[in-house]
Amino acid sequence: MNDRKKAKLILIRHGQSTWNADNRFSGWVDIPLNSTGRREAMEAAQKIKEYAIDVCFTSMLMRAKETTAICLTENSDRCEKKSPVFKHDADNPNWHGWDKYDGYIKEEIPIYTSPDLDERYYGDLQGYNKAEMAEEVGKEIVHQWRRSFSTRPPGGESLEDTAARTIPYFQKQILPYLKDGNNVLVSAHGNSLRSIIMHLDNLEESEVPGLELATGIPIVYTVNEEGKIVDKQILE
Ligand SMILES: O=C(O)[C@@H](CO)OP(=O)(O)O
C-alpha cells in the first residue's frame, strides 16, 4: 500500500491499432496493435515506470489488454516481485477456472477486464473508413457521430450511453482502490476514456467535442484519500 496522498490514477488510450492506422471506425471490433502501437506502449511503459502499479483495469478488447501488458514490462521494481495476472470473469458460464491458482496471491498485480471499459459501440459504422464516410454523408454529420455527447451513430452508442457504463464502473470498481492509496493503471479507448475524463475533469457537454486523446500517452492523476483529483499531468 502506498502513501494515501500519492495514489496515482494512470489513464492510457491503447497504442495505435491497425484500424487506427487505416482510419477505420473500430468500436467493438477486436483489432490488435500494430508495430507503431506496440512502440507507443513501450514508450509509455518508460514514462510510468516510476509508479509502482498495484492494480490494473482494462477492457475486453485486445488492443487495450496488449497495452496494459506492455505498460507493465518496465514497472520493474514491482514486477520483479509481482506478476501481472489477467483476472477473468468467474461469473461467465464459459469460464473454466483456468486462471485459478494457489499461493503467490499477494505477489500479483491483478488486471481486471470489463466490457464496461470497452470502446463506444460504433454500430453500423464499424469497419468503414472515416474519411470516405465523411465524403459520402458530409463532414459535419460524421463529426457529430464521432464527437458529440448525445448523438448516436447509426445503430451505435452515443458518448452519453458509453458514460452510463464507464462512470459507474469507475466509481464502484476503480475509485475504492484509489481512496485506499493504490496506484491504478486503466488502459482503455478513445471514447471510453473521454467519458471518464469528462467526469474527472468536470467538463461541460459543450467541452466534450474538443477533447481528443492521443494513442499511448499516459495521463497521470493524483488522487487524495477522499477520491478527489489534486493534480493532472499528461506525459507526452
Ligand atoms: O474507431 C473508434 O472506435 C474510435 C477510436 O479509435 O474512433 P473515433 O476517434 O472516431 O471515435
From TrEMBL:
GO process annotations (BP): gluconeogenesis; glycolytic process
Origin superkingdom: Bacteria
Catalytic activity reported: (2R)-2-phosphoglycerate = (2R)-3-phosphoglycerate
Site (Transition state stabilizer) location in chain: 189
GO molecular function: phosphoglycerate mutase activity
InterPro entries, A to Z: His_Pase_superF_clade-1, His_PPase_superfam, PG/BPGM_mutase_AS, Phosphogly_mut1
Pathway: Carbohydrate degradation; glycolysis; pyruvate from D-glyceraldehyde 3-phosphate: step 3/5
Function: Catalyzes the interconversion of 2-phosphoglycerate and 3-phosphoglycerate.
Protein name listed in UniProt: 2,3-bisphosphoglycerate-dependent phosphoglycerate mutase
Biological source species: Hyella patelloides LEGE 07179
Gene: gpmA
